[in-house]
């Protein structure tokens, strides 16, 4: 089966975050099962020559053009749009990681026009919005695509409700719940040296990296030998993170390495005692799943889509937003006995609830249903 995965942007800094990681994990898993999966996306920041594959997945990457000052929504590529019809026609199934942008919407529309089996996965990126651009795109394309797709994959009941609200009326009848999966990883080795606490996500206000810095200043008062890492591409918060690090006099114990590759993230996780993601309203973060797969206990806020699973499994802590709760949770998890038990629980949770094998079984069943529907 030839499966085309379309996502908005791939870059060396992983600026677009989780949807690209999900698309690559699915494509790699499909290829391991004998299918021909490939990636289609904008590209940005690559040195010449540009890659023709990403992590072993064949990739068609087109230079991004910023048409409007609207972040990812204002980016596109005339060359990609010109090639979209041909690439869509060459696939048996088109799987679009849909956002309100000028990349994934045209690709999905091309698949719909070509009569190709179309699967949409929105990653929490399509929800009710009062913004003018969102209203226009919903009226022109989004509702048509959501109704016309063979399947719409959602992460949580909250996301399903949001999609129904965007469509209006009786809502959607073509939805399938699909959690994010994470490949199995080797367990982190026995830890040595001073405690090490990791944040690895975009430096963006919603992710609250400054809360991480403030929380670690509280941890430092009790565990002065601890070390801290704030990793991720800058999306507006680097200056605030750096300022707070200097204000709290953490520059001797905290590093800000910038964006890391996938291998570098795993390397940091294998050295970490605790992983912290203090963001709010996070639907289903891949960085938390990756931490769990390595056996790193996690600290998240209650609004994180994985909070209940983490707490129920004993794989970490969920807290109210803010530095104080984060700091107390980290201090609890630095206890060697607590950390060891939470580490085992984290790996068990990743393997039993979020394995790639289970996710791929569901995805292939969705593809089979889409192919059958189009054939009929």
Give the gist of this structure.
This protein has 376 residues and is an alpha/beta fold. The chain has helices at residues 18-32, 78-89, 104-114, 132-148, 157-167, 209-222, 238-247, 262-271, 286-294, 307-313, 323-333, 336-353, 356-375; strands at 2-10, 36-43, 53-54, 57-63, 65-66, 75-76, 93-97, 118-121, 151-154, 175-177, 196-200, 227-231, 254-258, 274-277, 298-301, 316-319.
Descriptive overview:
The chain folds into 2 domains: 2-181 and 356-370, Glycogen Phosphorylase B (Rossmann fold), CATH 3.40.50.2000; 196-353, Rossmann fold (3-Layer(aba) Sandwich). 44% of the residues lie in helices and 19% in strands. It contains 13 helices and 16 strands. It has helices at 18-32, 78-89, 104-114, 132-148, 157-167, 209-222, 238-247, 262-271, 286-294, 307-313, 323-333, 336-353, 356-375, and strands at residues 2-10, 36-43, 53-54, 57-63, 65-66, 75-76, 93-97, 118-121, 151-154, 175-177, 196-200, 227-231, 254-258, 274-277, 298-301, 316-319. The strands form 3 sheets. An 8-stranded mixed beta sheet has the order 3-4-2-1-7-8-9-10, sandwiched between helices. Strands 13-12-11-14-15-16 form a 6-stranded parallel beta sheet, with helices on both faces. A two-stranded antiparallel sheet has the order 5-6. Helix 1 links the parallel strand 1 and strand 2 (36-43). Helix 1 (18-32) crosses helix 13, helix 3 packs parallel to helix 4 and helix 9 (286-294) packs across helix 12 (336-353). The two termini are 18 Å apart.
Secondary-structure map:
Blueprint: E1 2-10, H1 18-32, E2 36-43, E3 53-54, E4 57-63, E5 65-66, E6 75-76, H2 78-89, E7 93-97, H3 104-114, E8 118-121, H4 132-148, E9 151-154, H5 157-167, E10 175-177, E11 196-200, H6 209-222, E12 227-231, H7 238-247, E13 254-258, H8 262-271, E14 274-277, H9 286-294, E15 298-301, H10 307-313, E16 316-319, H11 323-333, H12 336-353, H13 356-375
Parallel strand pairs: 1-2, 1-7, 2-4, 7-8, 8-9, 9-10, 11-12, 11-14, 12-13, 14-15, 15-16
Antiparallel strand pairs: 3-4, 5-6
């Amino acid at each position: 089966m030839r499966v085309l995965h379309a996502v908005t942007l791939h870059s060396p800094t992983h600026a677009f975050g989780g949807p690209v990681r999900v698309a690559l994990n699915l494509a790699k898993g499909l290829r391991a099962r004998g299918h021909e999966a490939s990636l289609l996306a904008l590209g940005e920041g690559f040195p010449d020559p540009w890659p023709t594959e990403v992590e072993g997945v064949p990739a068609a990457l087109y230079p991004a053009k910023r048409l409007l000052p609207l972040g990812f929504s204002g980016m596109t590529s005339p060359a990609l749009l010109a090639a979209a019809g041909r690439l869509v026609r060459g696939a048996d199934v088109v799987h679009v990681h849909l956002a309100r942008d000028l990349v994934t919407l045209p690709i999905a529309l091309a698949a719909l026009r070509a009569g190709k089996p179309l699967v949409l996965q929105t990653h929490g990126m399509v929800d009710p919005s009062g913004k003018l651009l969102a209203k226009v795109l919903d009226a022109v394309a989004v509702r048509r695509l959501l109704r016309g797709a063979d399947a719409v994959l959602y992460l949580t009941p909250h996301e399903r409700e949001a999609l129904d609200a965007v469509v209006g009326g009786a809502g959607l009848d073509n939805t399938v719940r699909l959690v994010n999966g994470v490949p199995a990883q080797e367990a982190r080795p026995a830890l040595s040296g001073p405690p090490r606490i990791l944040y690895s996500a975009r430096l963006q206000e919603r992710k609250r990296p400054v809360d991480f810095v403030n929380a670690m200043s509280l941890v430092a008062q009790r565990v002065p030998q601890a070390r801290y890492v704030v990793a991720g591409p800058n999306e507006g918060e680097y200056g605030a993170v750096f300022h707070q690090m200097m204000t709290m006099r953490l520059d001797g114990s905290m590093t800000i390495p910038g964006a890391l590759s996938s291998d570098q993230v795993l390397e940091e996780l294998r050295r970490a005692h605790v992983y912290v993601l203090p963001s709010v309203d996070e639907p289903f973060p891949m960085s938390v799943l990756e931490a769990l797969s390595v056996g790193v206990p996690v600290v998240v806020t209650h609004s994180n889509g994985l909070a209940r699973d983490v707490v129920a499994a004993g794989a970490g802590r969920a807290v109210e937003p803010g530095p104080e709760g984060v700091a107390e949770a980290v201090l609890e998890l630095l206890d060697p006995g607590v950390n060891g038990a939470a580490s085992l629980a984290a790996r068990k949770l990743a393997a039993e609830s979020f394995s790639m094998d289970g996710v791929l079984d569901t995805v292939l069943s969705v593809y089979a249903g889409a192919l059958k529907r189009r054939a009929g």
